[in-house]
What we know:
By secondary structure, the chain is an alpha+beta fold. The protein has a domain at 49-176: Trna Endonuclease, Chain: A, domain 1 (3-Layer(aba) Sandwich), CATH 3.40.1350.10. Helices cover 39% and strands 21% of the residues. The protein has helices at residues 2-16, 20-27, 32-38, 84-101, 135-142, 164-175, 180-183, and strands spanning 47-50, 59-62, 67-75, 79-81, 108-113, 122-126, 147-148, 154-157, 162-163. A hairpin with a 5-residue loop joins strand 7 (147-148) and strand 8. Helix 3 crosses helix 6 and helix 5 (135-142) runs antiparallel to helix 6. The longest helix is centred in the middle third of the chain and has 18 residues, at 84-101. The chain is globular, with a radius of gyration of 16 Å. It starts with a helix and ends with a helix.
Amino acid sequence: MRRYASAYERELKDLLQGDPRAVRAYAKGLEPSDRTEFERIIDEPFLVIRAAGSLGLDLIALRREFAFPLEVKSSAEDTIYFTAAGGRGLVQLEGHRKAVARVGLTVLYAYRRVGYRDPDPWRMYIGTKAPIRGILNLVCRRLPTLDTTREGNAIIHWEQGMPLSRFLSTVRFLTETPSAETTT
């Protein structure tokens, strides 16, 4: 199973860093209006570093405006329970929360629905508290948070996430520098 997970980490890495072949292949399934917007990542990419490790983060995405650590999850199911696998996900989430709270960042969760026919199979969520200020705060305020069970354990519902194409559009909108024409 881990081998497949790393394939999805690489897929997301390729998309975020604007690999033209990966971006165009992904964008084929999107609506024409969304496709053009999504393909802008080719010219406005992130620097993405794979940081996979035991109970660590999977990816770190960087741009001049902000940075965010990413945890990548994949499943054929529509819900991921953090209590599965002996609660490893809960331990991981708590570790992420402690790590980023100290430095004013947040961890984003990217959920890849496997084997489900959707033109945009990636969903984005905020996994920790949003920073108090800055561009990252503006982005995080628009993202859905991880859900919780009645017992208070974290879960991810795929259908509640923000599609990757909308996430990238939001990031671009919030970080776009107004042109001289619109400011005069």
